[in-house]
Structures are given as C-alpha cells and as structure tokens.
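Appendix B, example 12.
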Amino acid sequence: MTEMPSVSVEPSVDRARLDSVHSAVKTWTGQLVDLGGRNNLLYFKDLRRGTLDLGQAAPKALAGLLAGKTVRISQLFTEDEVREVSRPMLMVIDRWLRFGWCAS
C-alpha cells in the first residue's frame, strides 16, 4: 500500500479580522465574570452565622440538596451535635432566602 502524502491546508484568513475576533472573545469573556465586590464566589466571607459547613453532611442528602430537592436537617446532619450547631445557621439562611437578601 502506498501512503497518502500529508497535505497542510491553511485557510486564508484576514489578520485584521482574526485580531478583531480574538479581541471580541476577550471582551465577552471578561463580561461573563463579575469582578466587582458583589461577586460572592470571588469575595467569599465566612460568616459566624449564615455560613453552613456541609463537610459533615450525609452524602445522599447532600446530593439531593445540590439537585434542588427539599432536605430535612435530620437527613442532612445525622448526628445530634452537628445538627444543633447547624440549626442557628440554617435559620439565618432561611430568613435570607425568605426575604430575598441573597438575591442578586
């Protein structure tokens, strides 16, 4: 069998147009991320009350919570001590959600 020669095909692209597209992509990408102080993901502040550590949450209940399902505290935290420590934080989070304080 004979091997096919490799052929390099380079499309003719106008350099100015290519630069313009790259510039637009950079601008659009920058607009996708809010770099201002209101971005809670970039400027996360661990609050004494209102920040819930899910490190000790039951995996199945946590998966349900992350899927948007309603999960009871007793399902999320199976140990009484952890549940009691988490309860005040959950109450603060519940108030924020009810009154729209977390809405962006």
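DSSP finds four helices and no strands in the chain. The helical segments are 15-32, 59-66, 73-76, 80-99.
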